[in-house]
Amino acid sequence: MEKEIKPTIKGRLIVSSPEDRGLLLYVMRNFKDAVEYAHSLMRKGVKENEIVKLLTSRILNNKWYSYSAYKRARLYREQPYLKLKKPQLFSVGSKDEKSK
C-alpha cells in the first residue's frame, strides 16, 4: 500500500499593503475564534456536521475553513477549556479539488 504524501508549508507571509495586512489579521482572528467556539461545542457533545454548519453561518462564511477550524479544535479536545493566544490560519485540503 502506497503512503499518501501530505505537504505542509511553514513560512513567513509577506504582505505589501497595510489594507491587505489588516484583512489578513482580521481573518486570522476570526479563525482563532472559530477554533475556540468549535472546541466549546465539541465539549458539549455537538456533532461534527452541526459544528461545521454553525461555524459557517456565524463566524467564517466558508465551509472548508469551518471544517479546518473543527479539525484544529480536535487537537485540543482533551483540554477542559481553550484560549488561544495568537491568531492563526489553517486549511485542510479537499480531495475533490482538481490540481491545475
Set out the fold topology:
Layout: H1 18-43, H2 48-60, H3 63-74
Helix pairs in contact: 1-2, 1-3, 2-3
List keywords for this structure.
100 residues; mainly alpha; 51% helix; 0% strand; globular
Structure description:
This protein has 100 residues and is mainly alpha-helical. The chain has a domain of 56 residues. 51% of the residues lie in helices and 0% in strands.
Radius of gyration: 15 Å
**Topology pattern, helix = H, strand = E:** HHH
Poorly predicted runs of 5 or more residues: none
Give the proportion of residues in helices: 40-55%
Please tell me what the overall shape is.
globular
The count of DSSP E runs of length 2 or more, i.e. the number of strands, is 0
Q: What integer is the average pLDDT?
A: 87
Distance between the termini: 26 Å
The biggest beta sheet, please?
A: none
What structural category do the secondary elements indicate?
mainly alpha
**What is the number of helices?**
3
Beta-strand percentage? under 5%
Give a short overview.
With 100 residues, the chain is mainly alpha-helical. 51% of the residues lie in helices and 0% in strands. The protein has helices at residues 18-43, 48-60, 63-74.
